[in-house]
Design goal:
Number of domains: 1
Helix content: 40-55%
Distance between the termini: 41 Å
Structural class: alpha/beta
Low-confidence stretches: 287-302
CATH topology: Rossmann fold
Number of strands: 5
Order of helices and strands: HHHEHHEHEHHEHEHH
Radius of gyration: 18 Å
Shape: globular
Number of helices: 11
CATH architecture: 3-Layer(aba) Sandwich
Strand order of the largest sheet: 1-2-3-5-4
Length: 302
């Protein structure tokens, strides 16, 4: 599955936009998870703008693909992807973590396109397996269920119960994706509780394993195409995506201090300018944000 130059450019722009919108909503709300939202930007770009069969005008279309964000604290990245794809209005990012607004963890009532509520880590793969088996009972051979998991949440035992069940029930319409950024809330993953040898673990539970650079659009697209169309023969597939926590902003990369942290306005301004430089975009920043930390000035700033 070879991406054209135009498609690569489009997906790169979408990954940039996902990072920018995530940064905006986290700064405005003064809470959120930048590191894990940034690490999966390319994964979300490929899924929402290339690989998944979805329709923003029919978010409950029966034959759609489903995406479950098991690492539900990464909701800014998912909301950004939904806004970029047209499921929700872009202005809704500014009601993130507000009463009645977009929830800090994914919630099905928050916005169209949210397939499952989340919060406690380790739930997503079980929910995804249930959906995959339900699609089979409905004799829907085309739709796929994608489940994005954090690497830290693989310390939860219920992931492995779901993995064992998926293999037993031959759920080859289920595609797991591990955002393997190797950093958790207070340390590196290997210091907290290592999950290595990760690929061997999944294989031992009866899954096919594909490893990719989680920021290489071509590798991601090829892996998803293979998992969806080539590999299904009675075995679920997991894509282990090696990513960088906080990818795109140097001070946040591989830095656990940016796991849960909202930048102040001046820092957000500098981060946005850095993202623009890294993506060869005209440099712009939050000039009025840098002058005030109030939500009013942020929302009304130029």
């Amino acid at each position: 599955m070879k991406l054209t130059e135009d498609m690569c450019r489009e997906l790169r722009d979408r990954a940039f936009e996902i990072r920018v919108l995530s940064l905006e909503m986290i700064t405005y709300s003064t809470w959120g998870h930048i590191g894990g939202s940034f690490s999966m930007a390319e994964l979300l770009a490929v899924l929402y703008f290339h690989a998944m069969d979805i329709d923003p005008n029919q978010p409950k279309w029966e034959n759609r693909d489903r995406l479950i964000l098991s690492k539900a604290h990464g909701s800014p990245g998912l909301y950004a992807a939904l806004a970029s794809r047209g499921f929700i209005d872009r202005d809704r990012i500014y009601d993130y973590c507000e009463p009645g607004g977009l929830e800090g963890h994914t919630h099905t009532e928050s916005a169209p396109g949210i397939e499952a509520s989340g919060g406690p880590l380790g739930m997503g793969l079980s929910v995804s397996l249930g959906m995959a088996l339900a699609l089979r009972r409905k004799e829907n051979p085309r739709s796929r269920v994608f489940c994005i998991m954090g690497d830290g949440e693989l310390n939860e035992g219920n992931n492995w119960e779901a993995a064992m069940a998926a293999s037993h029930y031959r759920a080859d319409n289920l595609i797991g994706i591990v955002d393997y950024n190797k950093v958790v809330a207070k340390s590196f993953l290997w210091e907290a509780m290592s999950v290595e040898p990760l690929a061997d673990k999944w294989r031992a539970f009866g899954w096919k394993v594909i490893e990719v650079d989680g920021h290489d659009l071509q590798e991601i697209a090829t892996a998803v195409h293979r998992a969806r169309w080539i590999e299904p023969n009675g075995t679920p597939t997991v894509i282990i995506a090696h990513t960088v926590k906080g990818k795109g902003v140097e001070q946040a990369e591989f830095n656990y201090k940016w796991h849960t942290h909202a930048p102040d306005p001046a820092t957000a301004d500098a981060m946005l300018r850095e993202l623009c430089r890294n993506y060869d975009k005209p440099e712009r920043g939050y000039s009025r944000l840098a002058e005030s930390s109030t939500k009013e000035s942020f929302y009304g700033g130029e």
